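Input sequence (120 aa), recorded before submission:
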Amino acid sequence: MKILLSEDNQLLRKSLSFFLESKGFIVDQFSNGKEALDAIIQNQYEIILTDINMPGISGMEITQFVRNNLHLKTPIIIFTSSNVEQTELDSFNIGANEFIAKPISPSVLLVRMNRLLNIK
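Predicted structure, token format:
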């Protein structure tokens, strides 16, 4: 199962990628929102994981583009270090399926991903 991981924090991106690959996922990882969006346009992913604050293009902009321009129903999980309730509400309003505050528990992420992908 192919997923996109867009996270500018290298340590978090590499550790999540390693964890997800150990669970059988194929992970395309990006540290820049523009590169991530280009990959989404060119490839098909089962799920998109993106940080909200990314260089180039934000996770919010990626989500809006996926929903409004590409019209994809691909599940999207947004990560953020912000604990602002409005940010979470805005994420859902633009089409995100899940919102996870940092620090991210890989096990919790996996449960939420599996739920979105209907994996038991």
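Checked by second reader. The longest strand covers residues 2-6.
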